[in-house]
């Protein structure tokens, strides 16, 4: 922090303590502040610098050690990243993970306020924003809608179709989980059964099977109910194997009370290079 940050505010302990910056000495590494209120400062509390761009690495050496020596061996599913300001921050994490990057889901909390404020449509009301969850806001909730530009029509029409036939379930056959997540973005009022089929590949000598991580990743998305199917080399490209997977997964859905006999469902899958949406009746 330099002289241009004089009179800036430093928030401690989830905003319960407010400090006003009076002077900064970059050479000595000292910041002189005035405390604006009285509060008890506990142990291991956080410090936030609103409006200040802090040039710190995305991952500390301790973070890297924890990920490589504990996270990877224990096959964790997700890494949550705070203070992400640019796409290269995520690239850095994926480079660290190396060959394990495909099995990790990265959740980033982006702290770039300026583009959000500049994108405000007119003449809509002003945005109400805050940079972090302060103690005084802990019991409050906010509702908003999220725009996802890359949602494909395939996912959109499946969500629309479920209303026209009074479907009770959206059935999605997927390998990486992407299609099911796209459908979930439309917030349908019925569950989405995401059937993940691991892909089996071979070079005539060595056989390999893709990881089941996409099924576990589905658990954090709204409305998704994951189901792991048996691995297949043609699970999403062959009509016969697809019909068999539908039948078995619907029996699982009935056992989980997601649907009943004679209910209508909407099914999404692929045959060769074609995307298929069809209405089915549960046997």
TrEMBL record:
Domain Pyruvate kinase barrel, chain residue ranges per copy: 8-109
EC number assigned by the record: 2.7.1.40
Reaction catalysed by this enzyme: pyruvate + ATP = phosphoenolpyruvate + ADP + H(+)
Gene3D superfamilies according to UniProt: Phosphoenolpyruvate-binding domains, PK beta-barrel domain-like, Pyruvate kinase, C-terminal domain
Keywords linked to the UniProt accession: ATP-binding, Glycolysis, Kinase, Magnesium, Metal-binding, Nucleotide-binding, Pyruvate, Transferase
Any one GO molecular function term: magnesium ion binding
Highest taxon in the source lineage: Eukaryota
Entry similarity comment: Belongs to the pyruvate kinase family.
InterPro entries registered for this protein in UniProt: Pyr_Knase, Pyrv/PenolPyrv_kinase-like_dom, Pyrv_kinase-like_dom_sf, Pyrv_Knase-like_insert_dom_sf, Pyrv_Knase_brl, Pyrv_Knase_C, Pyrv_Knase_C_sf, Pyrv_Knase_insert_dom_sf
Keyword S-adenosyl-L-methionine part of the UniProt annotation: no
Enzyme class: transferase
One Pfam family hit: PK
All residue ranges annotated as the Pyruvate kinase C-terminal domain in the record: 164-271
Keyword Signal: no
Protein name per its UniProtKB record: pyruvate kinase
Cofactor field: K(+)
Pathway in which the depicted protein is active: Carbohydrate degradation; glycolysis; pyruvate from D-glyceraldehyde 3-phosphate: step 5/5
Organism (species): Dipteronia sinensis
């Amino acid at each position: 922090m330099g002289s241009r940050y004089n009179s800036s505010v430093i928030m401690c302990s989830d905003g319960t303590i407010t400090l006003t910056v009076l002077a900064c000495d970059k050479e000595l590494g000292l910041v002189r502040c005035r405390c604006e209120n009285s509060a008890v400062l506990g142990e291991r509390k956080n410090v936030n610098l609103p409006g200040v761009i802090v040039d710190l690495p995305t991952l500390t050496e301790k973070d890297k050690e924890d990920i490589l020596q504990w996270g990877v061996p224990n096959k964790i599913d997700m890494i949550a990243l705070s203070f992400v300001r640019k796409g290269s921050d995520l690239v850095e994490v994926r480079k660290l993970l190396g060959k394990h990057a495909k099995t990790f889901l990265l959740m980033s909390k982006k702290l770039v306020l300026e583009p959000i404020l500049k994108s405000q449509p007119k003449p809509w009301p002003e945005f109400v924003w805050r940079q972090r969850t302060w103690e005084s806001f802990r019991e409050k909730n906010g509702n908003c809608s999220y725009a996802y530009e890359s949602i494909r029509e395939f996912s959109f029409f499946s969500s629309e179709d479920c209303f026209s036939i009074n479907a009770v379930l959206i059935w999605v056959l997927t390998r990486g989980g992407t299609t099911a997540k796209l459908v979930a973005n439309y917030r349908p009022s019925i569950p989405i059964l995401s059937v993940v089929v691991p892909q089996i590949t071979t070079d005539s000598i060595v056989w390999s099977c893709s990881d089941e991580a996409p099924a576990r990743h589905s658990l954090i998305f709204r409305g998704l109910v994951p189901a792991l199917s048996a691995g297949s080399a043609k699970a999403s490209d062959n009509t016969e194997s697809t019909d068999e997977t539908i039948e078995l997964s619907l029996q699982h859905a009935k056992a989980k009370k997601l649907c009943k006999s004679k209910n209508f469902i909407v099914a999404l899958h692929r045959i060769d290079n074609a995307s298929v949406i069809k209405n089915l009746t549960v046997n």
